[in-house]
Amino acid sequence: MEVFMARHPIFTVEKKVFGYELLFRNGIENAFPGIDGNVATSTLLSKIFSPFDFNAILDGKQGLINFTKELILQKIPLLLPKEHFIVEVLENIEPDKDIISALSLFKEKGFAIALDDFVYHKKFHPMMELSTIIKFDIKETSLNNLVDIVEQIKSKYNNLTLLAEKIETYDEFELAKEMDFTLFQGYFFSKPEMLSTKSIASSQITKLELINEMGREELNIEKTEELIKNDAAISFKLLRFINSAYFTRINPIDTVKEAITFIGIDELRKFIKIIVISDLNSGKPNELVRTCLIRANMCEKFGRIFKTDLTEDELFTLGLFSLMDVMLDCKMEDILEYINFSDKMKAALLENNKEFNKILNIVISIDQGNWDNNFFTYISGKPIESKLPDIYLGSVKMANSFINA
Q1: Coil, helix or strand for 201?
Q2: pLDDT > 60? residue 36
Q3: Residue 33 has pLDDT above 70, yes or no
Q4: Bridge partners, residue 374, by sequence
Q5: Which of 8, 40, 253, 296 could be stapled to 31 by a disulfide with Cβ–Cβ 3.0 to 4.6 Å?
Q6: Alpha carbon distance 283, 266 (integer Å)
Q7: If we measure between CA atoms, which residue out of 300, 66, 251 comes closest to residue 165?
Q8: What is the pLDDT of residues 222-247, one digit of tens each?
Q9: Under 8 Å CB-to-CB from 291, ≥6 apart: which residues?
Q10: d(CA 324, CA 113)
Q11: Does residue 31 register a pLDDT over 70?
C-alpha cells in the first residue's frame, strides 16, 4: 500500500497561506475510522523523514498533524521539528492527567498546540490554557451558534487564535472575520466571490489575447523572444523560474534567448499560459494559482495513463484554466468568448467532456484528500497506485517553484 498525502490550506485574514493541515491515508483506506490512527500517523512521520521531503509539501509554512491519544502519550510529536509542525489534538481526546502532562511537555519544548473540531466545555480549560489555536468546525456548529462561545473564550483566553474550519463561501469567510476568527480553513478561495456577467477589463483581455498568440501552430521564435524581452515582468519570471531549484541546473541561464532554447517551444507555451493565469489572479489568494498549477501538471501526467482524445498539452491547459471563472468572477462561457480555443477545449471547460470531467474529478480528489472517490477503490493494488504519490508531489514541487520564483 502506498502512502497518500494531501494538504488543506489554512489562510490568514489577508487570505495568505498560514499553513497546511496534512491529510494522509495508508494506501486508499480511510484513516478515520477505517484503520488505526496510530498506524496512520506513524507511517506519515516515517515518510516525512525519508525522501518524502516535508519542505516540498509545506513550502516553508506550518504543518498541522492530528495526533491520537496513544501517540501523544508516547510523546511522538517530539520527533518533529517544532519550527515546522503544530500538534493537533483530536476532538475525542479527554483532558485527563496524563494528556495534560504530555501537552505541558510539548509546550515547554516550544511546540504550538491546536485543538481540533473543538466543542466548548469547561472541562477543556486545562487544554485551552496550553493551546495556541482552537479549531471550530462550522458545519458541526454554525457560526451564528458560536457567537456567545467565541465571546466567552476571547474574554478569558485573549492569547488564543481562533480557526474556522470548513469555510466554503466568501460570505462565511467575511462573517467569521467579523467574529474575530483570524485563521480560516476550507475551499472558499476556489469559488467565485460573486459570479456575475460583468465585463472583462481591457487589461485582462490583452492577457487573454496573449494566450491566443501562444496557441498558434507555428510560433515565431524571434517575435516571441522580443515579446518577452519587452515585458520586464515576464522576462524576470522566466529567468527566475528557469534558474530555480526545480530544474537543478549547475550553470545559470542569463538571457531570454538561452531560456527559450533550454525549455523549448512546448514548455515556453506552458510558461506563458502560467504567467497569464498568475497575472489574472490579481486580488485573489496565491493559493489559487498554486491549485491551478497542480491541476495542470497532474492532468497532463494522467494523459499518459488514461485513454483520452485530449492531448497532454490540452490537458495541461484545461487543468490550468479550470478555475479561470473564479479568478475573474465571471461565467466561464463569457470568458471563453475572448479565447480562440477549439470547440473540444471549450466543451471541456464548460464541463461537457466526460473524459476531462473524470480526470479533473480524480485530480481534485487527490489534491483535497477525498479518499472515498470510487477511483481509489478501482486502482487498489494496480501499478498506477504506486505512481500517484510521486505525480502529486512532483506537481506540488513544480507549483512551488513557480510561485516562489
Answers
A1: coil
A2: no
A3: no
A4: none
A5: 40
A6: 29
A7: 66
A8: 877 887 787 777 788 888 888 887 77
A9: 190, 323, 367
A10: 37
A11: no
pLDDT band at 67 (very low <50, low <70, confident <90, very high): confident
Sign of CA dihedral 226, 227, 232, 236: negative
Q: CA-based diameter of the chain, in Å?
A: 72
CB 78 within 8 A of CB 108: no
**How many Å apart are CA 221 and CA 227, to the nearest integer?**
10
Q: Which domains does the chain have, with CATH numbers?
A: 3-190 (3.20.20.450), 202-404 (1.10.3210.10)
Give the SS3 label for residue 342. coil
Tracing cell 515556453 back to the chain, one arrives at: 268
- Integer Cα distance of 354 and 118 in angstroms: 40
Q: At what angle do helices 256-280 and 312-321 cross, to 10 degrees?
A: 40
List the one residue out of 130, 126, 127 whose CA is nearest residue 107: 130
The per-residue DSSP string of 299-342 comes to HHHHTTTS--SS-HHHHHHHHHHTTHHHHHTB-HHHHGGGS---
Nearest C-alpha neighbor of 270 from the set 206, 222, 326, 315: 315
Residue 35 pLDDT: 40
The candidate with the shortest Cα–Cα distance to 320, out of 367, 277, 262, 257, is: 277
Residue 233 exposure: Cα atoms within 13 Å on the Cβ side: 6
Query: Is the predicted pLDDT of residue 330 greater than 90, yes or no?
Result: no
Alpha carbon distance 359, 354 (integer Å): 9
This prediction's pTM: 0.84
Distance in angstroms (rounded) separating the CA atoms of residues 68 and 40: 10
pLDDT in tens, 80-123: 889 999 999 999 999 999 999 999 999 999 999 999 999 989 99
